[in-house]
Amino acid sequence: MWAVRGCGWHAPETVAPPGTCAPGAAVTLAAQRTRDQVDALCTGADGSVLTLWAAGDEPWSGPAVLAPPGACAPGTPVGLGRRGPAERLEAVFAGADGSLQALWADVDHPWHGPAVLTPPGACVPGTPVTLASQDDAGRLTALFTGADGSVQVMWADGGGPWTGPEVVAPAGNCAPGSPVSLAYGKSAERLNAVVAGVDGSVLALSAAGEAGWRGPVTAAPPGTCAPATAIGLGHRAAVQRLDAVFAGTDGAVHAMWTRRDGSWREPEEIAPPGSAARGTAVALTHRGPAPCP
Questions:
Q1: For residue range 52-74, what is the model confidence (pLDDT) as tens digits?
Q2: SS3 state of residue 211
Q3: CA 148 to mean position of chain CA atoms
């Protein structure tokens, strides 16, 4: 579906035939800023990695196969981000053997890979990999949960190779395969992450410049959400705070945000119990100033 300013949303249009993906498979989008093109990546029902793309007002093209059938578990989310001065698009995903693998494409060039970044067993098949682009430094950061319940980080600068993984939260903190949410804070150097703990807590980590990662700290107590819950995270620049939104164990939707000192407020219910299924993923983004209703 798509929307043009002032014209509303268009009805859904099929861009890949039935059976292309497993029901519920995640689709990841990224825009190429130096070219008016949107790229979409997903995993096929046969465990392949697929891409579709649309430039300007042209119709969608694809799907094209980037990684062969059996490369990953069907439905595996693909992390997608930009890095380097060449506006390289890079995709990172968990392979069927639990390795992390990467694909990449420069503007007006074909996709390359997949290249194996970690040994097999680094994570469980189907694990989401979350990417954050630091445009001014050309750095791309990837966070994921390891097969041992740790949180691990990898990064790549410019056109250079990937570094890591390094453990930023010890084993046993999370359920294997838990999604990690990433957002930049007050500056482009401060990266923040939240993840559901194995005990249903919300854990927060942060990294600033060359100081490395700090945490995890408990931002919300045990039992707040189901293990492996996907938490929406975003930075609200107007008030210089982070917001996190997630489904609680009772199906209520909760919001929490950072104080001026960086600590987290207790979660506040913004939708009543039963509004969401246990563990439902919440996506979060910020829009421009709007009047209160």
A1: 999 888 899 999 999 999 999 99
A2: helix
A3: 20
